[in-house]
Amino acid sequence: GLFSILFVKIYSTITLVFKKMKIRDEIKPAIGGVLVGLLILIFPEVMGTGYGWDNLLEFGVIPFSSLPCIFLLLVGLVKMLASSLTIGSGGSGGIEAPAFEIGAFIGASYGLIVHDLFPNIVPVIAPFVVIGMLTMFGAPAKAPLSVMVIITEMTSSLQLLPGEMIAIALAYVISGKYTLYPAQYPTRRDSPAHRSEYEVPIMENIRVNEVPFTELRINENEDVMSARKLMEEDGYFSLPVVNNEGNFVGAVFYKDIANKKGKVIEYTVRGIPYVTPSSNIENAWEIITRTKSRWVAVVEKGKLIGVITLDDLFSVYERELKKVHKD
């Protein structure tokens, strides 16, 4: 994880340096190439993709050196620099293979140390090479599962899978926000390509107080004839009922007062669901559907402040839908 952070810092710094150079873009890769060439003269092991060295290190073939542990670690660090110079200057190259080679060298270095200390417990360094490859690319690429599959396929073995899972999890957490792909979105949800998978329905985003209220009510002390007349004139089959203080009491239905006499309160159905100004219009839609009505009461602190009708909901929904399509 820490080496992943170092790799990202070296890569991003060199990329930024070349980006700020006030020279022609065609010259930048040439400068990067010259610098990489100088490094190769000292450390020829960093030349190429590095897959050959990955295989050799797995089989315990170590470059000749009086201090192999330090040499392997140094080669890994130089490879970080060489790869960053190549890609950061605008040269042609990928980041996956170099990351694997860097991880292989650093893993082999650590593996040799553990092997020298506990030769009976750690007879070979291959597991350290493989896990080094996995963590050096999987963590900074922010693709631990994908890289784990790649490494498993490359090694044709599942024996190291438990250790790989632990190692890549730790490296991923330690590396944190540092990534080799700065344009990479933090989560699938943030990606424009997958935005539709996580879109919240439009009706959940619109609050009741954004919808114009319709004034519709009948006092509980009025005659049912007045209620019938109001329903017939406006085309409703029910009305919200309020008391003298304007508190929402319930609703009176046309079917209950047809050919009836008396006060509205005698035929009022109580316990009618309602919404508040802070509710969303999906709640309003659900209540209208459940009560088979054309309106839903909007109540605040017990007071009826208006109703939302089906026509109101359709108008607001169409307006918001046009905005979404326009965006």
UniProtKB/TrEMBL annotation:
Main location: membrane
Protein's membrane topology: Multi-pass membrane protein
Family annotation (SUPFAM superfamilies): CBS-domain pair, Clc chloride channel
Record GO terms (molecular function): chloride channel activity
Record key words, sorted: CBS domain, Chloride, Chloride channel, Ion channel, Ion transport, Membrane, Transmembrane, Transmembrane helix, Transport
Ranges of residues in domain CBS: 268-324
Compartments, as annotated in UniProt: Membrane
Pfam families: CBS, Voltage_CLC
InterPro entries: CBS_dom, CBS_dom_sf, Cl-channel_core, ClC, ClC-type_chloride_channel
CDD domains according to UniProt: CBS_pair_voltage-gated_CLC_archaea, Voltage_gated_ClC
Transmembrane annotation, as ranges: 30-53, 59-82, 121-139, 160-181
Superkingdom of the organism of origin: Archaea
One Gene Ontology cellular component annotation held by this UniProt entry: chloride channel complex
Protein name per Swiss-Prot or TrEMBL: Chloride channel protein
